[in-house]
Amino acid sequence: MFVNRDAELAFLEKHYAGGQPEFIVLFGRRRVGKTELLKRFCAGKKAIFFIGFSGSMGEQISKFQEVTAEATGDPVFKQLKPDWEVIFDRLSKLGERLIVVFDEYPFLALSDKTFSSRMLRIWETILMNSKIYLVLCGSSVNMMLREVLAYKSPLYGRRTGQWKLEPFQFLHLDKFFPDKSWLERVYIYSVVGGIPFYLKYFSQKSFQDVLVEKMFAKGELLYAEGELLLKEELREPAIYNSILAALSNGRTRLSDIVNETGHPKTHVSKYLVVLQYLGLVAREVPVTEKNPSKSKLGLYFISGNYLKFWFKFIHPNASELEFDSNAFTERVMRNEIDTFVGRAFEGICRQVLLRYLSKKGICCEKLGRWWDRHNEIDLVGLDKSNGHIIFTECKWSELSLGECMALISQLKEKAKQVDWHLGKRKESYCIIARKLAGKEKLRKEGIIALELSDFDALISDELPSS
């Protein structure tokens, strides 16, 4: 299934339509849909689609010659000297608009450490004067940054465009699962996020069946994917594993991570920087912090719902899973899954609130958590231009009207501690929950009240009442 990549396709098509030589870099984490996007873009166009593999450079060139001969209909390419410059020189002399995709580019760079330098020479001496549309694509974010995008890379500054392909947002799941409820979609998104390759497992099966058969079953891809992801990106996975495991156990402050792992503080700090660079860990500070990079309140969290789930349930429980995955699944579903989903629901609420505010014409420049030593607010949105602040509580539960009113009362008290335009700001209050009793009464009192049943309106031209 290919859904909702309109912006990405428009970007690629815009560069194609100009007819000029192009050097496009497409990157993003494993399974996010880069190859499918490029296949959709190349459909109906003359294109050479080459996927790098683990092999010698001689093998890579030989295979590229075969693919090129087939794509162009010119058998001479098989007979050419196995040299990249010779091959690209002949391609450029075809004089036609031609897409050349190097998918899994990191394999080519690993086959020959000079390959990126060769590509620089080919681009500057051959392709810049051609009609060729070159695309370099790869899943190893670390390798793509180092070989193509980093300042010290030979190819730095040569690209004519780049795009980091991101996972789908939660509200996109209506396209993947039109027959599932928002409740089911929340559970699914909470454990695999917006990665299309993972989402497809849930298209014909129930949430619990996928847990038993695919995520908690030894030998299945979703069981081992966390380990594969880390090995692809990291040279010392054992050390990084210990840090990620500490984060999964709720050790989010630097000092707590150091104590949990036993690694020196300087080492942990260095590894956390790498994990952030690769997009595997995020550092958060209270949304009102004026200088986030220097804030002493920074907390660290695993990025991506699948990796959070893997470290919470699969990585530490391998022995139990191999012994009796059915019993393990039953225990998780009965005692633990809703707590885990509740934390993931806060991230879903961030997306939902941004969509709601956008539809209301409210520009929220910053939206995130806020905390001090004594208080915490799930989401605080800042509309700086209008001095408007939105305080939000996210609850993965069904709330009575009384519980809602008590939450709002507590939220108003905590809001007094948020030092942002005090005495001069407009304040709004919001509750997002699985289900809200007395929702209309809350809205009449000016509260933004959203539950799962309102999500359909957010993806349509309608707008939940407020």
Can you walk through the features of this model?
The chain has 3 domains: 6-164, Rossmann fold (3-Layer(aba) Sandwich); 171-342, Winged helix-like DNA-binding domain superfamily/Winged helix DNA-binding domain (Arc Repressor Mutant, subunit A, Orthogonal Bundle), CATH 1.10.10; 360-458, 3-Layer(aba) Sandwich (Trna Endonuclease, Chain: A, domain 1), CATH 3.40.1350.10. Helix content is 49%, strand content 17%. It has 21 helices and 12 strands. It has a 5-stranded parallel beta sheet. It has a 5-stranded mixed beta sheet with strand order 8-9-10-11-12, with helices on both faces. Helix 5 packs parallel to helix 7, helix 10 packs across helix 18 and helix 17 runs antiparallel to helix 18 (318-359). The model has no long low-confidence stretch (mean pLDDT 94).
Summarize the structure.
With 466 residues, the chain is of the alpha/beta class. The chain has 21 helices and twelve strands.
Please state how the strands of the largest beta sheet are arranged side by side: 2-3-4-1-5
Helix content range of the residues, please?
Answer: 40-55%
How would a textbook summarize the main sheet? 5 strands, parallel
Structural class: alpha/beta
**Rg (CA only):** 25 Å
Tell me the number of strands.
12
Number of domains: 3
According to CATH, the fold-level topology of the largest domain is: Arc Repressor Mutant, subunit A
Overall shape: globular
Global mean pLDDT: 94
Q: Determine the number of helices (DSSP H or I, runs of at least 4 residues).
A: 21
> So, the CATH homologous superfamily of the largest domain?
Winged helix-like DNA-binding domain superfamily/Winged helix DNA-binding domain
CATH second-level architecture of the largest domain: Orthogonal Bundle
Please give the CATH class of the largest domain.
Mainly Alpha
The N- to C-terminal Cα distance equals 35 Å
Spans where pLDDT lies below 50 across 5 or more residues: none
Range of strand content: 15-25%
